[in-house]
Each structure stands twice: as structure tokens, then as C-alpha cells.
Amino acid sequence: MPMIERRHVRRVSPLFVVFGLVFLFAAYNLLQMVMHNKSLNLGAAVTDALGISDPLTRLPEKTAGTGNPGLRYHVAVTATSAFYSQWQCRIMYYWYKKVRDMPGSDMGNFTRILHSGSPDNLMEEMPTFVVDPLPDGLDRGYIVLNRPWAFVQWLESATIEEEYILMAEPDHIFVRPLPNLAKGSRPAGYPFFYIKPADHKNIIRKFYPREKGPVTDIDPIGNSPVIIQKSILEEIAPTWMNVSLRMKDDPETDKAFGWVLEMYAYAVASSLHKVKHILWKDFMLQPPWDLEVGKRFIIHYTYGCDYSRKGELTYGKIGEWRFDKRSYLNGPPPRNLSLPPPGVPESVVRLVKMVNEATANIPRWETINRS
Question: What is the sign, positive or negative, of the torsion defined by CA atoms of 193, 165, 177, 361?
């Protein structure tokens, strides 16, 4: 049976919430330290500022792996203990295990970074590292703001064998073996059509000073999917967290970036460290907009898929046939979902078939995480 180790965890003083603005000022100072003192142990500095000590850990799972051991990457996914997050993680982990040792894969170990602050009922099912969430109220209802803070804690305290890390999300399904797409110190990222730093130049300049270079230097990416050297992510992560907090605290930025604010923060943080990503369009596909799987590696099912019985897309209107992860906020989707009607793109059909295969083979699928 896997061992779970609980280290001494101190909880945050309630006074922190009252003095939230003090923290944000401190976060700004940390950002300046990133720029002027790379030798500083920033993870420890952030931990001390928040008054949170080592997280709870579980040893990662070993894998046989294939290919060049030096290119092996660790698959890391941030998650919560909410049912909605749990069932997606279970499907993702199923497909990770299925493709990790196939020819052409550089996948190494797997960790679910659980930023709920305490263990949940999936601890024995998949390798999990428990970290603390941000103090109450600091995320202002934007749960994704916990992601950079989760990575800061994990990188600071976990033992990570691989030299590279894939930052992934619960709603990712591995379609085929994923090689290491990074090239040495050049990380690999996916270009999002809606991340457009140049279209928000005045806002970006609040966080990316003119002396750092043109706004066009900022990559049109988020933090996921990204394959990156561990040492580089250790430098970027505290900056990513600090920029995220500053952006959320700025009303104009918060309104302009909305649910992709943390993605912009990662892109800006990377550029502040002079890190440029190789942009891989085949890294991922997003049904229903991407019609074919082709040579892509990951299905990202963030969008709802709504179709008429004739196979016509009815996006923005609930279809006669639909698959939308948000339909299952309080429990997992049932096994054996109905397949789309004729005429629906191959990418959507493939998605539903892969969900069905996973749910058919995961034990206690409909009971372990239902409310």
C-alpha cells in the first residue's frame, strides 16, 4: 500500500485576510526580487510570507518509460477535491497509463497536485501531492489563481526525478504517445488564438515594463500544455504567481482578461525571464472547433459540443445531442454515453469514445466521486 506522509502543516492566520493588501504589496516586492536577484530561494520566500509550511506528500509512481531517459518529463496536473475535478482527473490518469510506455513516449511519472489542503478519496488511485490553497478570499472566486501557487509549493518540496515537466489539466486526454517537444532550454507550448498580448498593450505594460522589450516578445500561450525544464519552471513559477495576483488586483486587467487572466500571467512571467516557447499547433486539439484529431497529441474538452440530430453544430444553444463537461458538476458522466449523430466531426466522436472507454474500465466509476 502506498505510503502517505504528513508533514507539519501550519495554517494561515485569519489576520491574513484582513491584511490582504499588505500581501499584495509583498507580492509586488517579490516580483522585483525575481528581476534583480535570481539566486533568491523564491519558493521559500513565498512560503514564509504566507505562513504555510511543507505540504502533504505521496511518493510518485515509477514507470518503465521508453526513449532517451534524459528527455523524460513528469506529468503534473493541478486539481481540487471537487467532484467535477475528480472525474476529469480519473479519465486523464487512465489515458496517461495507457500511452505512457508506448513507443515514442517520453512520459515519466505522474502527479496530481491537489490544492485543496487535505487528502481526498483518490489518494490511493493516483499519485497525489497535497498543497495548501491560497488563503481564504485571496482568489476572489477565481479558483485557477491557485494553480501557480500550487506549482510553487510542489516545486519547492517534492522530489521530482525528471528534468522536464509537462503542465497539464484535468480535462486533457492523451490521444497518442507524447514525446518531449521541448528543445533543451526552449520550452514547448500551445498557441491559443485568444491570447493576444499585442491587443492589450496598455494593460500588459503594467506588468511588463518597456525596458523588458516589445509586447510582441510575449508568447500567445498559457501554462498548459507546456513542456519545460524543471530548473526554468522553478524560476518562472513565483513570478507567475505574483503577476497573477497583481493582475487580479487590478480592476482593468481583471475585466479585460477574465477567465484567462492566469494564462496571460504565465505568458508575461515567462517573458520577464526571457524564456521563449516553441509553439506547437499539433500539441493539442479543442473540439468542436478542431474537426480532426490528425497528428495531435492531446484532446482538450473545455468547450461544450452541441449538435442537432442532423449533425449540425448549435454552439451557444443546447443541442439535441450534447457533451459538455459542465453538465456533470456534481458527479461523473454515466458510462456508455450515446455517440454523436452522423455528420459530427471525427474529433468529437473520438472524444466521446475515449471517455466511454475510460469510464468502462475505471473501477467504481459511478460511485467513488458522486455527491
Answer: negative
Residues in the chain: 371
Distance CA 284, CA 20 (A): 37
| pLDDT score of 24 | 39
Cell of 266: 504565465
DSSP string, 255-319: HHHGGGHHHHHHHHHHHHTT--PEE-GGGEE-TTTS---TT--EEE--S-EEE-TTS-B-TTS--
**pLDDT tens-digit series, residues 108-121:** 999 999 999 999 99
Q: Which three cell numbers stand for residue 205?
A: 505594460
Confidence of residue 40 (pLDDT cuts 50, 70, 90): very low
CA distance 223 to 145: 12
Going from the C-alpha of 283 to that of each of 162, 182, 238, 273, 296, the distances in angstroms are 20, 11, 25, 23, 6
Nearest Cα residue to 244 out of 221, 273, 267: 267
CA–CA separation, 286 and 84 (whole Å): 19
Neighbours of 45 (CB within 10 A): 18
CA 200 to chain centroid: 23
Contact 148, 234 (CB under 8 A): no
Q: Of 20-24, 287-291, 341-345, where does mean pLDDT reach its minimum?
A: 20-24
Task: Report the C-alpha gap between 78 and 148 in whole angstroms.
Answer: 9
Task: List C-alpha distances in Å: 332 to 76, 87, 170.
Answer: 22, 6, 13
User: Which residues, 6+ apart, have CB-to-CB distance to 14 below 8 Å?
Assistant: none
Query: Do the Cβ atoms of 132 and 52 come closer than 8 Å?
Result: yes
Distance separating alpha carbons of residues 242 and 355, to the nearest angstrom: 36
Contact assessment for residue 301 and residue 173, using Cβ atoms and an 8 Å cutoff: yes
| Amino acid letter, residue 223 | N
CA 112 to chain centre: 10
The per-type count for the chain, helices as H runs and strands as E runs, is: 10, 14
Tell me the sheet residues that pair with 88.
Answer: none
Residue-averaged pLDDT of the chain: 85
Kindly give the interhelix angle for 42-50 and 20-36, rounded to the nearest 10 degrees: 170
